[in-house]
Specification:
By secondary structure, the protein is of the alpha+beta class. It has four helices and nine strands. It comes from Tranquillimonas alkanivorans.
């Protein structure tokens, strides 16, 4: 039997491509939400997500204007473009919400996360952990004869990569802050 020939640009799909060609693409977006700094606001924002079955990949909250009593909630979430638009619209309708910014579409932004890693090890594993920490520009913020606590700041991908390398070397515990983000430029 001769091999199957498919013309370039043919609409025929590989038998190994199990993705649904009609399915919408799921995207990850970082939203910055400016809200009143008062009791119950975070619960209302989170309730919007949980009540509609939306997932939150990362969540950080901090006061950003003490005199104006405003806080900034940074949320990393995933969904189809229509779902992301729905999330933004519903967030904007919550009364204590002043602004909703989609940093993913508004232009370049800077995203960072902080993580602490407790790594236990002696001998060669200890030396390797220190060597990798140096490559990742991690700071040793605590040290004993058998363990370290490293502080790493960077993108979520950098934090994930550092964790993957520390696991075989004796990663005991990890704590992450979640993503904080701000748009680049003068505006």
């Amino acid at each position: 039997m001769p091999p199957l020939k498919i013309k370039k640009g043919s609409s025929r799909h590989s038998a190994y491509d199990l993705r649904d060609p009609n399915a919408e693409i799921v995207e990850t977006h970082t939203l910055a939400v400016i809200v009143d700094n008062e009791a119950g606001v975070l619960a209302r924002v989170i309730g919007l997500f949980s009540g509609r079955g939306y997932n939150i990949d990362s969540l950080t909250v901090a006061e950003v204007d003490h005199t104006g009593h405003l806080s900034r909630i940074t949320i990393v979430t995933t969904g189809t473009p229509a779902v992301i638009e729905q999330i933004k619209a519903q967030l904007g309708r919550i009364v204590p919400v002043h602004e909703v910014h989609d940093l993913t579409v508004e232009g370049p932004s800077v995203e960072r996360e902080l993580a602490l890693f407790k790594v236990s090890g002696v001998g060669d594993k200890r030396v390797e952990a220190l060597r990798l920490a140096d490559i990742f520009r991690a700071n040793a913020v605590d040290s004993t004869l058998s363990s370290f606590v490293f502080e790493v700041t960077g993108t979520s991908e950098k934090i994930d990569a550092f964790a993957d390398l520390m696991r075989p070397l004796g990663l005991v515990e990890m704590a992450r802050t979640g993503v904080v983000a701000v748009s680049r430029g003068t505006e």
